[in-house]
Amino acid sequence: MNRWTPRFAAPLPSREICRSPAARSFHPLPALLLGTVLAATGWVGAAAAQTGVTGPGLMGWSGAQPLRQFPPQARLAELTVANSHEVLLDGRPVRLSPGSRIRGVNNALVVSGALVGQTFMALFTTDTMGQVHEVWALSPQEVQRITANNRLKRTQPESGSGER
């Protein structure tokens, strides 16, 4: 005990008491060697080819994924991220709402600043002010599925803009 230890503190168990015999006998070197051998012989690549996982795509891992469900009010557009607060929907500038969410093809959230200058097909919803609130980046397979179902229409310019 030293002068900073409370007088009635229980002694800490030693390292040998805390670790089981199996935990004491584990060494990471055999696992590392096994991984290296599997990668060198091509077993890991063959497994990836069978599962369809091909590595990181434009915005995440591409491969066999379950079908995503989208809200019925979502609309289809070609989306270009102009800057972190503004996007172009089929060439029309529209602001992102505060708290907007952009989901990549793997359904993970993506920060809009990381997508500046990129163009992709997307589904989007708007808030009551007409700002884009939710965006789902679509893979080519999802675009085919959505357009084949004719469930969604492409965005149309608003007719009440006053221009003739």
Protein architecture, described:
This protein is of the alpha+beta class and 164 residues long. Among the domains are: 22-51; 75-154, OB fold (Dihydrolipoamide Acetyltransferase, E2P). It contains five helices and eight strands, in the order ααααββββββββα. It has helices at residues 15-18, 21-25, 28-41, 43-51, 140-149; strands at residues 55-57, 60-62, 75-83, 86-89, 92-103, 109-110, 119-126, 132-137. The strands form two sheets. Strands 3-4-5-8-7 form a five-stranded mixed beta barrel. Strands 1-2 form a two-stranded antiparallel ribbon. A hairpin with a 2-residue loop joins β4 and β5. The chain is elongated, with a radius of gyration of 26 Å. The termini are far apart.
Helices and strands in order, then pairings?
Layout: H1 15-18, H2 21-25, H3 28-41, H4 43-51, E1 55-57, E2 60-62, E3 75-83, E4 86-89, E5 92-103, E6 109-110, E7 119-126, E8 132-137, H5 140-149
Parallel strand pairs: 5-8
Antiparallel strand pairs: 1-2, 3-4, 3-7, 4-5, 5-6, 7-8
User: Could you spell the SSE succession in H and E letters?
Assistant: HHHHEEEEEEEEH
Order of strands in the sheet with most strands: 3-4-5-8-7
- β-strand amount: 25-35%
Can you tell me the CATH topology of the domain at 75-154? OB fold (Dihydrolipoamide Acetyltransferase, E2P)
Overall residue-averaged pLDDT value:
74
CATH architecture of the domain at 75-154: Beta Barrel
